[in-house]
Structure formats: C-alpha cells, structure tokens
Amino acid sequence: MSPHVESPPRRRARWAPYVFAGPAALLFLAFSLLPIVIAVALSFQDTATLGDGEWVGTANYETMLGDPLLRTALWNTVLFTVGTVPTAMAIGLALAVALNRPLPGRGVLRALFFVPMVAAGVVVGVIMSWIFNPDYGVANNALAALGLGGLPWLTSPRTAMLTLIVVVVWTRIGFCMVIYLGALQSIPAELREAAAIDGASGWQRFRRLTVPMLAPTTSILLILNVVFSLQAFDVIYVMTGGGPGFSTTVLIQYVFRSAFADARMGYAAALGLLLVLILLVFTLLRQRATRRAEELL
Amino acid sequence: MTRTSARRTRRWLLTAALTAVAALVVFPLYWMVVSALTPGGQSQSSEFYLWPDAPTTDNFTEVFAQQPVWQWLGNSFFVASVGTALSVCVSLGAGYALAKYRFRGRGLLYAAFLVTIMIPIQVTLVPAFLVTARLGLVDSPWAVILPTLFDVVGIFIARQFMLGVPDALIEAARLDGAGELRTFFRVVLPTCWPLVGVLVILGFMNRWNDFLWPLVVLQGNESLTVPVGLSTLTNNPAFTSPWGAVMAVATVAVVPLLVVFLVFQRTFVQGIASTGIK
Amino acid sequence: MPTHGLSRRAFIAVAGISVAGALAACSGAPTGTRHLRLSSWNIPLDLESYQAIADEFVANHPGTSVAVEVTTGQFHQWFITRLAADLAPDIIRITPQQIGRYAANGSLVDLTGAVPADYRDDYSEPFWAIGAKEDGLFGVFQHTDNFITYYHRGVLDRIGVTAPASLDEAWHWDEFLEIAREARQVTGGYGFGYGWSGPETAYRWLPIVYQNGGAFLGDDGETPSMDSPEAIEALDFGRRWYAEGLVSPANMSKSGGGAVARDLFLTGQIGLMLDNPESIAALDEGLPDEWGTAPMIRNTGEASDLGGNALAVTRSSKYPELAAELVAHITSRANVAEFCRRGNWLPARSSLDAADIGYERHADTMQQFIDQAGTIPLSMVRAESGRYFSSLNSVFADYLDLCLLGELTPAQSGAQMTEAMRSVTTR
Asked: Is B38 contained in some domain?
C-alpha cells in the first residue's frame, strides 16, 4: 500500500492560493486595513470634525487615564458582558441539548427559538422600548392584569442594565442554540450509546461526554459573544441612550458619543482601539487557558 | 412498561415547558405585529390585551402611502441578495486557500482577518467612507455591497468546513491531471453545498439587517434600505413619528427574513452541524 | 478551458463596480445642468413643499435642477461622515441645536451676500442669531416650533379651573404644580407630561432654567452657569415633578424614544402636557374637541423651547452661490408662509401671523404658539446654537437625568453638570 507514483502528478501551482484568497485579501486591504490604519493615525490627532487634524502625540491616550466617564463606561461594559455572555450561552446550550432529543414538534420549537435573531438591532430596540414602557407597555400591563405591581424596567438606574441584559440575551439564545445543536449532531452516536451502556446517568453523560466534546464550540461561541457584547450599540442606543444617568453607558456608546456628539474623532479612535485591545487580550488569555487545560489533561 | 410511560410523560412535560418558553421568546415579535394592527389609542392604553378589539391595517396603508416602503424593500432585497452571492464566492475562495494551501503569509493573513471582527465600526466608519468615496461608489447600491463583501465570519466558517474536506480527494483529482481551478470547481465545491447554505442564510440576514454602513453611504429616500428607512421615522430630533407607522415598518422589515428562515431552518441547522464549528 | 470561473466572477464584479461608478459620476442631470440636493427630515408634507418651492426656483433659473432628499437617523454620524468626504447635500435643513458646531468649524458656507438685506428686518433678534455668527451668516431660520400647555378639557372642568388665555395670565410654577396635583387625582395616573423625544432633545428642558432667571451659559455665551442659585432652583422644581409623582419616570429625556407625553395624554393618564404643535394632529384624531391650549408656564421670567429648523449651505456644495440663492428663495416671506401653512409649522419671520398664513385648522392655537415664540430668550438661543452645544446637550441630559431621578441633589447636579460642561468648553 505504499504510495507508488507512476507518472509525477501535477505540481501544486504556486499561484493558486493567491488567486483563491486574492479577492478577499484585496477587499480586506481596501475596506478594513486601510480604514484601520487611518483610524490608528487619527488616534494621535486632535480633529475638530473636519479638515486636517493636528498631531498631538499620545495626548488622547493620556486623556483616557483621567477620564471618569471612561471608568464608568468600562465598569458598565464589564457588567453588561458578564451579564449577557454566559447567560446566553447557558440557555442556548440547554435548549440545544433539549431539542437534540426526539421530542414532538422539535422542528417548530427550534425555529421559534431562533426567531429573535432575524430582527435588526434598531427594530429590537424600538419594539423593546415599546414593550417595557412602564406606563403603557405590555410587560407592566400584563403584571397588572395578574394583580402584581409594575416594574420600572428601563427608567430606573437599578433595573435598566438588567432589562438591557434580558433583551440582549433574548436576541442571542437562538444563535447559541443553533451552533450548539450543530456541534451536538456531530458527536458520534456510538459514543453516547457506549456511555449509556456503561450506566452513566443523563447528567453524568452531559458532564463527562457532552461538555468536553463541545469545548471547541464553546470556545468559539465565547469569543464571538464577547465581541458581540462589546460592540452592542443599536439596542442600547435606542432603548436607553446610555441612561438613566450613566447606568447603561458602555464603552461603545462612549466611542459613538465622542466621535459624533462631541466630534472628537481622535479621542474616539483611541477609545475604539482600547476596545480592540481588550478583545485581543481576552482572546489571548483564553487561548492560553485552553492550552493549559490541555496540558493538565 | 411503567418506565416507558414515565419517560413519555417526561418527554411531554419537557415539550410543554419548552413550548411555554418559546411562546415567551416569540412574544416580542408577535407584539410588534399586534401593535402594527392596533388602532392608535388602544395601543398606548394601560389595559392588558393580547389581540386588539378592532384590528386594522390602517397603519400599513398609511405608511405605504406616505413612504416608499416598497422601494426600501426592493433595495434591501437587491443589496442583500447580490451582496450575499458575491460574498459567498469570496469567502469560499479564501476559506479554500487558507484551509488547503501552504503559502507565504498564510498565518499572518488569517490572523489579520480574524482581528478585523474586533474593530468596532464606529471607529472605522469615517475612514472607510473616505475610501469608498475616493473609489466613486457613494450613493449607489455598490457602496453598500462592495465594502461588506469581505466577511470574516463567513471566511472562518468556510475554512473550518474546508479543513474537513479530505486531502485524498484533492490529491486524486490532481493525479488525474486536473488543474487547480478545475479541482476546486469540480471536486471540492460539490461537497460544499451545506456550507453554501449556511453562508447564504447568515450573509443574507446580516446584510438585510445592516444599519450603520448603509445609513451613511445611501442618499435619497428612494434608495434606502428598510432599517435605514425605519430610522428616518424614529430617532429624529425634529419630529416624532407615530408608533403605528414605526411598528408597521418594523413588521415589514422582519417578516420577509422570518419566512426565509422558517423555510430553511432545517437545512441551516444541518449545515451548521456539517461545517464543523466545533 | 473551463478554468476561468472565479476570475470571471471577479471580473464581472469589477466591471459592475466600474459601471456603477460611471453611472454615479454622471447621475442626476445632463451635463451643463447645475444640480442641487436639499436634505430634509423625512416628513412627507414638507418634502412636497420643498420640492414645489424648488421647482418654482428651477423654472426661474434655467439650467438648474433640485432634488429633495431625506436625512436619515443619527444626524451627526451621517452628516460628519458625509462632510468628511465632501459629499454632504448642498442644502441642509438643520435644527438650531445642531447648527453651531458646523457653523464654527467651516462646514457651512457664509450666506451674507446671497440673502437680501431686508430679511434681517423681518426677524426677531433671537431667531436671526441662530444663523448669524460673528464671522458670517451660516443659516437662515425657516420655521420655528415651541412649547405651550395643552390641557384636557374634562380634567380642568373637574378641577374647576379655567385655563389662562394670554401670556400675561400664564400659570406660574407653583400654580401649575397645584393644578397638576389635582389633575393627578382626576386621572389616577400622573399630573402632566413634558414633550421630550429621546436623548437628543434634552435641551427642551432649558426654558425651565430661563423661566427662573437662570442661564445655561453666561453672558459671554461660553461660560457654563448651571451652578447659579436660579439654575439650581429650577433643577429643584424639576425634581419635584418626579418626587411627587406628578410626571411619569418614563417621561424623561433619555428613556425611551417616541412621544411619551403625547401617548400618556391621549390615553388619559395625564391631564396636562407641555409640548409643541406636532401633537395637534394626533390629538385631533384621538381626542377631538376634548383638548385646549394655554400659554407655557413661567416663573420669574418667561421662556419656551426653541424648536424648528434653519436652512444652511454646506461646504460640499459645488454651486454655493446658487444654493444660497435657493435658501433665500425658500425663506422669502411668501414661501415661509406657504411652507408653514402646508406643514402646520410656525413662521420664523416676525411679520407673519396666523391669519397671514391661513392655517387650515386651529388658527387660534397656532396664533398662541406664534405669540409664545416671542418669549424665547436671546441668551438661550445663543447658548443652544453655540459651537459646543451638541456636546453640552449630552452633558445636560446626563445630569438632568440624575437630578430628576433623585440620584443627585439639585445642588450637586448643578455643580457636577457645570464642571462637566467646563471640561467641554475648555477642551
């Protein structure tokens, strides 16, 4: 069975990968890399909206150090991310496991859970502010019909963040569920049967077999979800505008506000790069954690 | 016997619980449709109802008469379908190159691609617009389509899938004397239909819902996409649009996607399963 | 050789792009025609009015054409991006609160030469000041809009008060709160509402500060002065609205979009509302003949909201003189009257009253609004149309919110607001 070659096969052409990846690379250069380079340059400038900025060295980065609103925004970003990411993933996983069983009507159920994902952020924001209006929104009207008192939802600094988290989790569970479902379906059935024969209980099988098999999926979903959460703009912008007070002002809102309400492009670019840095550090830490976990095993 | 019946009861209980949760999950979109069908007055009242006393299509009639909603829909459809078609081609090519070739700069290219999903659009909006304007694309649908053809998530999914295409298959084609492009189109591509399905659904959905980029590059009420059109009705310091109109347009924005997804959801889940995002 | 698939596709894409580019380059009009683009908020009646006035202009200016377009949501994001690439519309309909920055940073064109000298005489000083800055005339105010008091007839009857009819009988703060408390008894919900619509409109509350003799910025139009005793007293007045449950917490500048006050009024959850003329159409539909209007509230002084829009020419325009001429044409006395009649707006010009305009409905109410417009103070106009106002407005929204919610005392929020404003103006 040793590979015996009669006539030499065609050599792999060296140009081929460049042709295949070429369109993507060109588009990347023009519409991603070039704008990013310009943005990095902007972060070292002071721009009064227009015209040529003035080079100010690291002044924008120094401003960030003493900016109290940035501190608030960072803290809110952490709350928002920690509130949304694990919750959405856990619910998505639970739904995926449940709907991977032969249940009656599971096709319909799967589709229903995915439904929120089809709505654009602006649309979600508009619908949700309507539903959660404390005076005439259906949420409080329903609570009243049940004889319960209404909640302030988006109008109190104590509940606004929680309400936003609920809304954003709602938009994400469908995506998490579908990705997990896909991964579950590619776990070989024999493995599961073998575990069942070994007498493992449902929970044991889930912990010992399903969770480890899903680890790579979890890893990708985690990073995607963190990216989504850090960049969640439309929904928050429409629903609370960062308020009440500063209670829902997250970093991306602050980037937007600096760039367009304050017309400080340079500062906004610096803030945006801070956000990228946070994401990069998070990604690298995660990779290292995975590697360490693999070493331990 | 009792074990199976217990299991059956459990199964039905689970289904019932899931149905209840699903109802809650679908409710906001249901409510959007109900609000669009509710006459003014009742929709802002504090009474609780699940279906309006006198449903009406007035909100739709009015907003369709006043705004070029059909054109918005047409534009969204054009931008989303052409953009998706081209972008799927770009992603397939890039995914194939990254998965199946070793070439100089591959690692760097892939890393650079992945980093771009971390850059928030608010930061690159103005620079990207300058580039697009310099190319003379602004104010045409191509200004929406072209800069969004590069789709990192699409490339990533394509690469993951192509990694799973057996090398032996490709080698065999080569042994038969097929060229690089022939190998790709005749041998690799036919194994990729589930992947294409996933890319099409995700790509279409993202493009249909895209907001900030079309907002700045499109001009003229007749050229807008649906989410941008919707934003001209809300979000204005100069005037407030009635809720009925907003809900009607929101419904129009969501329902087409909903239908597409409901039709293709089976294919989609199976496609995801086969793309090997794991 | 069937091997050109991908490159063929790429070729088609590139060809499509260049065709699109070529089309974009020669779109609009045949060569030689000077084409202008005017961008307005997406209000169908107004778009028609602009187009009709522009068509008249085109008829008198052979070789020109004008397209009326719509301004999409998130104004600054759209406008800044467009200006950066020199692709902003020639003429922009812009609010007084938005115009200051663009007038100051060279984005707008000086209209001095194109606007007839007698225009100035038909404008009140505050309204002219919106476009007239130290170094030129950067916009002409076209129509205005302000706040008066709407009341529910049934509610006032139950309370047993008669609404004041003229400005000199307007309710004072304390009288108004007293009536609002009784109104809350009648409605079972809240007393009154305030006509914000989203975070960008926080400034609509500034008249309250001026009614108490306070000011947002000092006399120089630059120094933040929200920590003055008068301003803090005004903030305290606002805090009472919410502390006493007279206004719904959902009715605050940042929370929710849409017209919360109007929705509450329409469904009888409030009996009074401080709001602009935009509500009239909805009230006619939802509560015909059950509503009336009275002047805006006042305290030691009078003031009302500065609504409305100016027209300005952007530096992206290839034909700035022609565009300026069109602005002058649209803001002529006759055209302002016609525009206001069709769109139910208030005229920016002083010599027009409700009878001149010939509103189809509610001429009395519209006259009441026109009279109220005279109470808009010059210093408030200067502050709101100043160069930093867009940033200052976000700061105002933040701390007003914190005060109205009771998170900060009026004195604290006045002090912190002033501090934050200072960091904007000294940036």
From this structure: yes
CA dist., res. B153 & res. A224, Å (int): 9
CA dist., res. B149 & res. B146, Å (int): 5
Residues of A in Cβ contact (< 8 Å) with B205: 117-118
Give phi and psi for A97, each to the nearest 5. -65, -45
| Average pLDDT of the segment spanning B4-22 | 87
Q: Which two tokens stand for residue C315?
A: 């530096």
Q: How far is C13 from chain B (nearest CA, A)?
A: 8
Instruction: Name the residue range of residue B172's domain.
Output: 67-275
Q: Which two tokens stand for residue B163?
A: 């990694």
Give me the count of residues in chain A. Answer: 297
Task: Give yes or no for B41 touching C (CB within 8 A).
Answer: yes
Q: Verify whether the Cβ–Cβ distance B128 to A31 is below 8 Å.
A: yes
Interface membership of A4 toward B (CB under 8 Å): no
Note the pLDDT tens digit of each residue in C135-194.
Answer: 999 999 999 999 999 999 999 999 999 999 999 999 999 999 999 999 999 999 999 999
What domains can be seen in chain A, in order of their start residue? Answer: 68-296 (1.10.3720.10)
Tell which of B239, B241, B247 to mutate to test the C interface (max C CBs under 10 Å): B239
Residues B252 and B76 sit within 8 Å (Cβ to Cβ): no
Strands C91-94 and C34-40: parallel
Helix (H, G, I), strand (E, B) or coil at A49: coil
- Give the gap in angstroms from C-alpha C384 to the nearest C-alpha of chain B: 14
- Would you give the DSSP letter of residue B191? G
* Dist CA B268 CA A295 (whole Å): 35
With CA atoms as reference, the chain A residue closest to C4 would be A19
For residue C68, the chain B residue with the least C-alpha distance is: B220
The CATH number covering residue B239 comes to: 1.10.3720.10
Instruction: List CB contacts (< 8 A) between C100 and chain B.
Output: none
Nearest CA in chain A to B9: A103
The residue whose two tokens read 């015209």 is A51
Q: Which of A135, A164, A236 to mutate to test the interface with C (most CBs of C within 10 A)?
A: A135
The residues, ordered by sequence, that sit 6+ positions from A31 with a Cβ below 8 Å of its Cβ are B128, B131, B132, B146, B147, B148, B150
Euclidean distance between CA atoms B215 and C379, whole angstroms: 35
Q: How many domains does chain B have?
A: 2
User: ipTM score here?
Assistant: 0.86
- For the residues of A64-84, what is the DSSP string, one character each? HHT-HHHHHHHHHHHHHHHHH
**Four-way CATH pick for C148-305+388-425: 3.60.15.10, 3.40.50.2300, 3.10.180.10, 3.40.190.10:** 3.40.190.10
pTM recorded for the entire structure = 0.88
Straight-line distance from the first to the last Cα atom of chain C, in angstroms, rounded to the nearest whole number: 65
Compute the nearest-CA separation of C180 from chain B (Å): 20
Q: Is the dihedral of CA C223, C226, C231, C233 positive or negative?
A: negative
What is the DSSP secondary structure assignment for residue B43, as one 8-state letter? G
Quick one: B238 and B103 in the same domain?
yes
Same domain, B24 and B126: no
**Alpha-carbon separation of residue C30 from C35, C64, C65 (angstroms):** 9, 10, 10
C24 closest CB neighbour out of B137, B221, B243: B137
- The yes-or-no verdict on residue B191 having pLDDT over 50 is yes
CATH number among 1.10.1610.10, 3.40.190.10, 2.160.20.80, 3.40.720.10, domain C34-145+307-373: 3.40.190.10
To which residue do tokens 């404390």 refer?
A: A134
The string over C372-394, giving b where at least 16 C-beta atoms fall within 10 Å of a residue's C-beta and e elsewhere, is bbebbbebbbbbbbbbbbbbbbb
Domains of chain C by residue range: 34-145+307-373, 148-305+388-425
Residue A297 has pLDDT above 60, yes or no: no
Q: Which residues in chain B are closer than 8 Å to C258, comparing Cβ atoms?
A: 234, 240, 243, 246
